[in-house]
Structure formats: structure tokens, C-alpha cells
Amino acid sequence: MNPFVSLLIMAAVALVVAVGGLALSAIVSPNRKNKVKTANYECGIDPTPSNTESGRFPIAFYLVGMTFIIFDVEVVFLYPWATAFHQLGFFGLSAALVFIALITVPYVLEWRRGGLDWD
């Protein structure tokens, strides 16, 4: 038997479980909407009247959260580079420096736009 058949079977089972769970929850779950469920909600704090009228919330918290996720992913991509540093030589060092420079550009742009200010 081909070794990829077991992978295809596992992927098919995962797809059936995922789609089946979504379909079952759509069929079984109650669909009762009320004022509380459809109201604006942000971090457990009731929205202020000015935010409710415009329908927009300040996004500074979300920008900082996304920045953290981006740099967390950057660190994860640097782990393999750090483990194979001696074997990669100068090419590995230059590739890592280019990667860090490309990730630093959005951080600097967000910093200059004031996305990290809490005022």
C-alpha cells in the first residue's frame, strides 16, 4: 500500500469531523436572537454612548495584540535558524538579517503612526 494513503484517509476523516461538527451545530443549536446578543460588546465593558452611535471602537488594544502575535511568530521562525546556525554559514546569517529587517519595517510604521500609544 502507498504510504500516502494513510495520510489521505486521516485528512478525509478530519474533514468529515470538521464539516460534520459545523453541520450538526447548525442543525441542533437554537437560533434565538435578542437585544443582548446583538448588542456591541468589547472586552466586557459596556460601550460608551459616543461609540454606540458611530458603531466604532478604538483599536489600539487590537493593534498591540496583533503586533505581539506577529513578533511571536517571528521568534518561532528564528528557532530553526538558531539550531542550524553553524551549518548555514554566511548565507544563513544574511537570510536571517533580511527576515528580521522585513519584520521590523511594519513595526516601525506602526510605531510612527501611534499604534503603540495608549493615550
Give the count of helical stretches.
Answer: 5
Beta-strand percentage range: under 5%
What percentage of residues falls in helices of 4 or more residues? over 70%
Gross CATH architecture: Up-down Bundle
Poorly predicted sequence stretches spanning 5 or more consecutive residues: none
CATH topology: the name is Methane Monooxygenase Hydroxylase, Chain G, domain 1
Shape: flat
In round numbers, the mean pLDDT is 80
CATH class type: Mainly Alpha
Q: Gap between N and C termini, in Å?
A: 63 Å
Describe the structure concisely.
The chain is an all-alpha fold. It is built from 5 helices and no strands. α4 (60-83) packs antiparallel against α5 (85-113).
Highlighted features:
119 residues, mainly alpha, Methane Monooxygenase Hydroxylase, Chain G, domain 1, 5 helices, 75% helix
Characterise this structure.
It is a single chain. The protein has 119 residues and is mostly helical. The chain has a single domain, classed as Methane Monooxygenase Hydroxylase, Chain G, domain 1 (Up-down Bundle), CATH 1.20.58. Helices cover 75% and strands 0% of the residues. The longest helix has 29 residues. It is flat. The protein starts with a helix and ends in a 6-residue tail after the last helix. The model has no long low-confidence stretch (mean pLDDT 80).
